[in-house]
Design a protein that fits this description.
The protein has 311 residues and is of the alpha/beta class. It has eleven helices and 13 strands. The strands form three sheets. A seven-stranded parallel beta sheet has the order 3-2-1-4-5-6-11, with helices on both faces. Strands 7-10-12 form a three-stranded mixed beta sheet. Pfam families: NmrA (PF05368).
């Protein structure tokens, strides 16, 4: 009998990618949890991944829906970026614990766990604090930075553009440090494949690691310049600039300010830049799912960035 997986936030972005991969896995049935206020269920329903409308603040009702669908594992892909989304995810943990059927929970991280200096640390740590109060086995996934962005819009992806350090559409780069620091990049479809594989592991660690390729921003830049047949305008941001919460503004950034204000975006990307310098975005090889599942062949950056050829 197939196990039922519930993906919270599975109607868009990375959540949608994860649902696509879960639908291919014969061991699992998948349902999607989406806030009542944001969906018209009949319009987005999918027989292979039915959408269940939930009000996360109604813990009892959500617990009942998890139980009635016999959900064993909840995977959160909720975009936890503020207090409202933080509370929603905490309420989902409470509902999962109360359901009586849910045994495992993957909390929404999808990058690297935030440190205490991050403005997002507490809003994400609130979920971990709640998970520790339960009997649920849980994990979060650290995969470095999503590779998809650097092939957008010429690669298959459900992500919206969010260019960190290199902006291929505008042939511009603002790179943290020297550009020779190693970090991990992973294609979202590969992250999803690793997650599906990890569902079958008998035991989870609190952080689950995976990656597609370890490389540097200077190599990414070289690949992008080769693909587009032109040199980019390049700036390097020193540690002192990053420490002040500042980065070089890329041409694509102002278009994001209406929904991601400039101070917040600069703060987040300067934090990411500091993490690159500290090696925090470089996934530890020995702890990675890549070692456990060598049969998963990952997409390489040259393929993603190379999608720009001819454009």
């Amino acid at each position: 009998m197939s196990k039922v997986i519930a993906v919270a936030g599975g109607t868009g972005s990375f959540g949608r990618t994860l649902v696509e991969e879960l639908k291919k896995a014969p061991l699992y049935d998948v349902i999607v949890l989406a806030p009542k206020a944001t969906i018209k269920v009949p319009e987005v329903n999918d027989e292979e991944a039915p959408v269940i409308a939930v009000d996360y603040s109604n813990v009892d009702e959500t617990a009942q829906k998890l139980a009635s669908n016999n959900v064993e594992i909840v995977i959160s892909t909720i975009s936890v970026i503020d207090q409202v989304s933080s509370v929603s995810q905490v309420d989902l943990v409470k509902a999962a614990s109360k359901s009586g059927t849910v045994k495992r929970f993957i909390t929404s991280e999808w990058g690297t766990p935030h440190t205490e200096v991050s403005p997002m640390y507490q809003i994400r740590e609130n979920t971990v604090i709640e998970l520790r109060k339960t009997n649920l086995e849980w994990t979060r996934v650290a995969n470095g930075y999503f590779m998809d962005y650097y092939g957008y819009p010429h690669v298959k992806t459900n992500l919206k553009p969010l260019f960190f350090a290199v902006d291929p559409p505008n042939k511009t780069a603002g790179i943290p440090g020297t550009g020779n620091e190693v970090l991990s990049f992973t294609y979202t479809y590969d992250v999803a494949k690793f997650v599906v594989a990890a569902l079958g592991l008998p035991k989870w660690e609190e952080t689950t690691y995976c990656y597609g390729e370890k490389t540097t921003f200077n190599r990414l830049l070289a690949l992008a310049e080769e693909a587009q047949g032109t040199k980019f305008t390049v700036t390097y941001d020193p540690p002192e600039k990053l420490a002040k919460g500042e980065i070089t503004e890329l041409p694509s950034h102002p278009g994001m300010y209406p929904y991601f204000p400039k101070p917040a975006l600069q703060g987040l990307f300067s934090l990411f830049g500091s993490w690159v310098l500290d090696g925090r975005l470089n996934v530890p090889e020995e702890k990675s799912l890549n070692v456990k599942f060598p049969e998963i062949k990952t997409t390489k950056l040259a393929e993603i960035v190379g999608a720009w050829k001819g454009h």
